[in-house]
Amino acid sequence: MSQILFKNMSLLDPRWDEARGGYEVLVEGEHIKEVSPKPIKAAKARVVDCGKRTLMPGLIDSHVHVFLTEVNIRNLENVPLTLLTARSAELMKGMIDRGFTTVRDTGGADWGIKTAVETGLIPGPRLFISGRAIGPTGGHSDSRRRTDYQGAPCGCCNAMVYCMAVADGADEVRKLVREQMRQGADQVKIMCSGGVASPYDPLDSLQFSEAEIAAATDEAKNFGRYVLAHAYTPEAITRAVNNGVRTIEHGNLIDAKSAKLLKSKGGYMIANLVTYFVMKEKAASFGMAADMLAKNDIVLEGALRSLEICKAAGVKVGYGTDLLGQLQVEQSQEFIYRAQVLKPLEIIRQATTIGAEILRMEGKLGVIAPGAFADLIVVDGNPLKKLELFLDQGAHLPVIMKAGKFHKNALK
User: Which structural domains are found in the chain, ordered by start?
Assistant: First the structure.
């Protein structure tokens, strides 16, 4: 089995408080074999001299949409799955180019695109998929227009339908959750409040009853999976968490009481700041409607405050971006927005060790340790001192490795 030895670097394992010099890391096959503060004996290993740069785990984005390839998602009504797949491939290559070696897709990506990445047909990060996001009639995942009375059109010619599903009543929810898991979902996405990109539902609407949420979480638990919930308001967050939801997505309007509840249940919040800032600046030029932009302004106001509330309550927050279509190039800007509230090490942990916890891959992702997957990046400097090193589409990342294979190596 081939070996690769990284040496002459500063090692940043996010479990530490700072980067440490003098370490060497040996990769064998897909995994890290050895991490040592002393020279490692590996005579046949290919040596990568990092030139005193920083070696750290690959980044984890816990909230992406690789199939939502349009800012104005209404445009997906006229996108067939063949074109959607081609666009998705380009988006995923951009993600791994930026150092994101793992992403959790929260609605849309299926087992087919996941298999294509796993088998090397297209370059991209590890995909943890949710299948179709599930919500009630008239909710955030109801992709129909008001003039659509005969049900949803065929999903093969309408990408919105392929990415979203509607269920009403606990039995329908239970059946659709089972279907997503049959289709290989790693986790299940449900809608518990209104959304920005859906035109007909108010942000503070409560979507899915307690019985419907409980049906979803019960089925997911029975299958060894978990449920994540789109939820903005304290009421939606409380309803979701009290009925077994493990991770709250967005949570911009969270308050101290609902944050305390989330903490007590051992749940996580995946915040997404960059999408709201960038949509306010650029989404109108891509055709996003005024009513959607008005809702965006509401959640934008609470974005930074939500991080402060969660930090005070001790809630673990994952790194997520939730960017749509052409705006996904802004993925790494999330580091910069969070830095208004959090320290660089806190944000890096959110994009590594906490991300691994969310994926239930502790010890396998997000760390530099024997037995972990060899998902690694080399950074031109110390990101603890300069988060901007994650910007510019990976220009400051001379090495990107996933599962022991180089996606990029400029240190040959």
Answer: 3-57+366-409 (2.30.40.10), 59-358 (3.20.20.140)
